[in-house]
Amino acid sequence: MSTIAVLPGDGIGPEVTRVAVEILRRVRPQDTHGEYLVGGAAYERHGTPIPDETKAGVERSDAVLFGAVGGPQWDGDRVPRDLRPEAALLFLRTHFELFANIRPVRVFPGLEDASTLKREVVEGLDLVVVRELTGGVYFAKPKEYGERDGIPYALDTMLYRKPEIVRILRVGFEIARTRRKLLHSVDKQNALETSRLWRKTAMEVAADYPDVSLKHVLVDNAAMQLVRNPKQFDVIVTENMFGDILSDEAAMLGGSIGNCASASLGRGGEPGRRFGLYEPISGSAPDIAGQNLANPTAAILSAAMLCRQSLDDAAAAERIERAVEAAFASGARTRDLAAAGAAYLSTTAFGEAVAARL
Question: Is residue 64 located within the same domain as residue 185?
């Protein structure tokens, strides 16, 4: 029996998370689920995006199933930066050292025409983006926003230390070993000192993985190649900001960012028993929140990753993944994946279609 902390959050988070939890209960009825406030919902009730009760609940858990945080009502200067909904997610990443973000991108059979790219470009696509999650420009200091000599200015710092680069590269290489033994390291070494260190380190780490082919690609070229010839990639490993952008781009190759799950993992633990945070990468989508229109696929697949990576239950993960694939094969589509004018399923109805095929 395992304990899962459920943090639905804001926007469509509660809707898609509810579906994913129902799927988890069907494949692992022995587990317990504790639900806690996070993000804007927590701020409105407690004045903080991550209350002590939520922190304690996560500490007691084997894994976290996360929805989404954020919304226009908390943007800009409406809320202090350290109290914005996103601060909860940044806290969890740093507190639990969740440095490795794994984002599989797959075009499911039957969804080729949902992509805006040609069928032959995306058919059979299956790649993984490995994103460093606790370093880089999002976390480094100093960070400043102010005024000098009457002129508004802002400052962000990009900082990477070699051990941070080594550990995320090793995650990428280890994943590549289980797949096509091909790893693309993405940087901007022609302009950034951090990327020069990144590339040098990648070549050093590659010596420990002679069975994996290492290729270097500049981030701007990587963005272009993802829409030109995405099937040339298998495992992509890169720093925080580049990974944030490229993984969203890659997610759309399959027709919708609503299909893309993620796992954020830290150090320690045995394979299959690592603490992790699992979430869709689509965000809170406030424009459709509360309308039962959101695509819950990414949340469901995040639950599958949770079973495999933190609960050591590959069989449950495979049941969920096969059920999602079978639902798509049967023609089940949410609004974001349906052809123009075609019928589509609500969030809950799609979840029922998956559940029926477990």
Answer: no
Asked if omega into 230 is within 30° of 0 (cis), the reply is no
| Domain end marker among 191, 221, 254 | 254
Cut 0.90: pTM above it: yes
Q: Which of 226, 254, 282 finishes a domain?
A: 254
* Helix 347-355 with 314-329: angle, nearest 10 deg: 120
Per-residue tens of pLDDT for the chain, all 358 residues: 899 999 999 999 999 999 999 999 999 999 999 999 999 999 999 999 999 999 999 999 999 999 999 999 998 778 888 899 999 999 999 999 999 999 999 999 999 999 999 999 999 999 999 999 999 999 999 999 999 999 999 999 999 999 999 999 999 999 999 999 999 999 999 999 999 999 999 999 999 999 999 999 999 999 999 999 999 999 999 999 999 999 999 999 988 999 999 999 997 667 778 999 999 998 999 999 999 999 999 999 999 999 999 999 999 999 999 999 999 999 999 999 998 889 999 999 999 999 999 9
Residue 19: give the domain boundaries.
1-102+271-358
Q: Which residues are catalytic?
A: 138, 188, 220, 244, 248
Pairing of strands 182-187, 235-238: parallel
Do residues 238 and 120 share a domain? yes
